[in-house]
Amino acid sequence: MRIMRGRWVRRGLTAGALVVALGVLASAGGELWTRGSARGHVYSEAGVPAAPVAIVLGAQVYDDGSPSPFLAARLDIAKRLLDAGKVRAILVSGDHSRWEYDEPGSSEVYLVARGVPASRIALDYAGFDTYDSCARAKRIFGVGEAIVVTQTYHIDRAVALCRTLGIEATGVGDDSVRVYSEPWRNSVVRERGAVLKAVADVVTRRDPVFLGRQETTVQEALAG
Fold first, then answer.
1. Are 214 and 50 in contact (CB under 8 A)?
2. Residue 140 near residue 215, CB atoms below 8 Å
3. Strand partners, 98
């Protein structure tokens, strides 16, 4: 009986070690994919080549409707890109799955209050994650070339996903909110799991959570 128990314990330990090893390999492979796909396509704000559209990926909005510092920093970059003539329109993407929570709407209010014409802004209310935002930008809004704006810990994954999904994407990352050390650190840790999810999304080529009809708002913003 003791011998059999010992065998089961050893088998359990072996299986556990195998799972851990596979997890490590998958994580390493995901990191290599994101970095490789984004290499040569991530720039400083001053050095990024011009593109028709800036895609601002969503982030937390507070109960009063104001963007969190992470989202505000992304929006500030997009505004400066517009002011500098690097882009002609801004697509703000984010979560509006609940009536009382509206990342794109709050982003639009923030930009307009800082002088961005509403006619230059398009809103994607179903950008529930980075994959969905990139897929919908291509399939629903017809974006073929863009500058993706997010934080630096996220930029490689965002550019890799958009490029894999058919957008000629470059990226600009924000470091200014690194001063919020705890949420920054937590986001960096979560990014490791998000990379694995991104790989799974790309392999399965799943549809976004919500597709809906074709939108012309990006084209209208470009022509505005």
1. no
2. yes
3. 101
